[in-house]
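Quick one: co-fold with adenosine-5'-triphosphate.
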Amino acid sequence: MAAAIELKQVSKAFKGKRAVDNLSLAIERGSVVALLGPNGAGKTTTVSMILGLQQPTSGQVKLLGGSPNERGVRARIGAMLQEVSVVDGLKVAETINLFRSYYPNPLPLEKLLRFANLEEERDKMAASLSGGQQRRLGFALALAGDPEVLFLDEPTVGMDVTSRKVFWDTVRAMAGSGRTIVLTTHYLEEADSIADRIVVINNGRLVADGTPSEIKAETTGRIISFVPGAGVTNETLLAIPGVSGVEWNGPRAHVSSGNTDALIAELIGRQVPMKDIEIQSGGLEAAFQSLVQSAK
Ligand SMILES: Nc1ncnc2c1ncn2[C@@H]1O[C@H](COP(=O)(O)OP(=O)(O)OP(=O)(O)O)[C@@H](O)[C@H]1O
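Sure, here it is.
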């Protein structure tokens, strides 16, 4: 079966400046992919081209094996974009029903209200909802057509902690039922917990692509710390292959390395005297910062 989404050497230029630069990417059906990148990296432009809302300057975009501009393809996708369009004069349930009417096989209204945690707001005017409630309405509208591919652009901005949890539980359940989900987020811990693949974009280019643990391991965000025995100096540690930096906190040395497994073997092999050994992962945040900085 064709990939859910395929980008081949896609570029998009605005007034000569490339917002997306020669991006190639295939997203398998049933996967949950997070697009990460700093402000202005090109994430929204990429999603807009996949949705057919913007046309690439060059390259090819395929969605569900066809063109994003085909009606038949559009009926099979759902998108929650940063701007939620609220129709004036309609209540929450009426707005959802309007969107349901656009699709051949919509999900039931009650299910959508539950997924979006909007059961209590069903009879409120949509325009009177708070920012976070409007985002949740945007989620219900994105799901209205029971989409095979779901796009979530910064979905949890403005949501409170409870709504966020309900939201991600629902997204996880959706992913479990074989849908393809593409999300952009600035909350790296969310990407880490929900995505099975993370694609990092910077300056319109792909700078890393892998599982959350591969992305974390690819970077210098990992540290071994220990209290070295007498005679072990900064220079001794820096001279060991695989050590990318050493910082001291009193008697404790924090040694960073791209591959802490290999480094620990090296330290033991060299019989470096060590006490109270700890291995810390820098986490996705550190990995992300280091990727974005090294790509500059
Ligand atoms: N319509 C436009 N006209 C001119 N430049 C644009 C337009 N849309 C986007 N850009 C530029 O393209 C680049 C990528 O923007 P884009 O919105 O895709 O980034 P992003 O990764 O989604 O950022 P953010 O995290 O801030 O939403 C930015 O430099 C932006 O200023």
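If it helps, The radius of gyration is 23 Å.
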